[in-house]
Specification:
Layout (H helix, E strand, L loop, with lengths): L3 E3 L2 E3 L4 E6 L2 E10 L3 H19 L3 H17 L1 H12 L3 H24 L3 E4 L5 E9 L2 E5 L7 H12 L3 E5 L5 H14 L6 E3 L4 H10 L5 E5 L2 H14 L2 E5 L4 E5 L5 H13 L9 E7 H16 L19 H16 L3 E4 L16 E6 L4 H4 L6 E7 L2 H9 L3 E2 L1 E5 L3 H10 L4 E4 L15 E2 L2 E2 L9 H4 E9 L1
Parallel strand pairs: 7-8, 7-10, 8-9, 10-11, 12-13, 12-18, 13-16, 15-16, 18-19
Antiparallel strand pairs: 1-2, 3-4, 5-6, 6-22, 11-21, 14-15, 17-20
Helix pairs in contact: 1-7, 2-4, 2-6, 3-4, 3-6, 4-5, 9-10
Length: 476
């Protein structure tokens, strides 16, 4: 059994969590100690005790630890990428790619530790100086989702430590393996006792204990909208800082003047890769009528030809869904789409392979309207629907007609339409002739409406959440 990390000690418990490979349900990746309320409080207490020293640690110390973490992740990218593919179901190339991204994130924030700057300003009063500095927000609770088992923890943990905060980290219990490996790497890199604490367990126990604790100063959460609202209410009750990244129902607009090959690549990648289990996935394909039929015909053919299988097989393009619950949700939404008038043009059925796993052929549903449930609610699987529209104006209206606003894309050769769309798409991120999924690690990530709340994640913008501003006046 792999232990928890609390106050610099590896702790076992009487309860455990099995990590099951969704490509092969007979393969137990490993067994992990399960935390409860007592372990979560112990981790929080340790983080609180460690905060004063870590908050005043030197930028060089934080840089060196983050850089060492980055270097080890990168050196072990093949091993960690395979672990990720086994526990989450991403294909091996995707798993390795995500691991490399985690290393890049730690490397970026190693540099940011040396770049944190303040301001010295003249006061409006004579003989008075003003210094504006940034300080850590305090003990940060991190609640991560299962769909990016190493990248999302990295883009929360790295800035938290970079800016002098201490951490209580709860990964998704479906995918504890990468988080445990990351904790071990951080420990080996020299993170002082109590600065980083790993508690693995269900959200209703560990997550709730974090929300209930008055000693956690900030919560950063990625997950569902419903859970995000619960996190927000709990944080408001504690008057603590919080950051939420939640759902998406991302549109990809395809105009008549598009390069068809570019549009097909964007749709196929954005909708179905990573088994569609991305909050930035292109779940609504909004296509103008002049190109609609050709686009649908080609996309349906390519969807049918996608190779679904074990995440570690070289010929696999689409891995399994993460677990049985998610698989059932995907199948239910496909039937809902059909029952409300949609046409299942490709895929949508279970796939049998040599090993028992949660395999489904990606589904393309056409002849849908934007008021159908399939276009209003997040499926979070390899399911895409097509909405036919008359022209660009209608496409933009439909794209914005959603409670979500994370990522929005357009495929067009028109500079006029591309420029207008970038300015008028109601989303935190806009893609032109690119998949809606796939972002850089050094620039801000986040959305509008019900997709996000609070400061942006990633890049130098992360300091807005992980620091607080102090203004000091001095009489000369």
């Amino acid at each position: 059994m792999k232990p928890l990390l609390i106050d610099g000690e590896w702790i076992t418990t009487s309860a455990s969590i099995e990590n099951i490979n969704p490509s092969d349900l007979g393969d137990v990746v490993d067994v992990y100690a399960e935390a409860g309320v007592a372990e979560t409080q112990a981790a929080t207490d340790a983080a609180k005790r460690a905060l004063p020293n870590w908050a005043h640690s030197t930028p060089q110390q934080r840089h060196d630890i983050l850089k060492a973490t980055s270097d080890e992740i990168l050196a072990r990218k093949a091993e960690l990428g395979e672990l990720l593919a086994r526990e989450e179901g991403k294909t091996l190339p995707e798993g390795i790619g995500e691991t490399v991204r985690a290393a890049q994130i730690f490397d970026f924030f190693a540099g940011e530790a040396l770049r944190l700057a303040g301001e010295t300003l003249p006061s409006v009063r004579p003989s008075v100086g003003v210094d504006v500095t940034r300080e850590p927000v305090g003990v940060v609770g991190i609640i991560a989702p299962w769909n990016f088992p190493i990248a999302i923890p990295a883009w929360k943990i790295a800035p938290a430590l970079c800016y002098g905060n201490t951490v209580v980290f709860k990964p998704a219990e479906l995918v504890p393996g990468c988080s445990w490996a990351l904790a071990e790497i951080l420990d080996r890199a020299g993170v002082p006792a109590g600065v980083f604490n790993l508690v693995i367990g269900p959200g209703r126990v560990v997550g709730q204990a974090m929300l209930d604790s008055p000693d956690i100063d900030a919560i950063t959460f990625t997950g569902s909208v419903a859970t995000g609202h619960h996190v927000a209410n709990a944080c408001i009750a504690q008057m603590r800082k919080f950051q939420l990244e939640m759902g998406g129902k991302n549109p990809l607009v395809v105009l008549d003047d598009t390069d068809l090959e570019v549009a097909l690549d964007c749709a196929l990648n954005g909708a179905f890769y990573s088994t569609g289990q991305r909050c930035t996935a292109s779940s609504r394909l909004i296509v103008t009528e002049g190109i609609h039929n050709r686009f649908v015909e080609e996309l349906a053919e390519r969807t049918r030809n996608l190779q679904v299988g074990h995440a570690l097989r070289e010929d696999t393009q689409i891995g399994p869904v993460v677990d049985e619950t998610q698989l059932k949700q995907d199948l239910d939404y496909i039937q809902i789409g059909i029952s409300q008038g949609g046409n299942l043009r490709a895929g949508g059925g279970l796939v049998e392979r040599d090993t028992k796993g949660h395999f489904i052929q990606p589904a393309l549903i056409t002849d849908t309207t934007n008021d159908m449930r399939i276009n209003r609610e997040e499926v979070f699987g390899p399911v895409a629907s097509v909405i036919r529209v008359k022209d660009y104006d209608e496409a933009l209206h439909v794209a914005n007609d959603t409670e979500f606003g994370l990522s929005s894309g357009i495929c067009t050769t028109s500079l006029k339409h591309a420029t207008h769309f970038k300015r008028n798409a109601q989303a935190g991120m806009v893609m032109v002739n690119l998949p809606t999924a796939g972002v850089d690690y050094h620039v801000p990530f986040g959305g509008t409406k019900s997709s996000s709340y609070g400061a942006r994640e990633q890049g130098s913008y992360a300091r807005e959440f992980f620091t607080t501003v102090k203004t000091a006046y001095t009489l000369a």
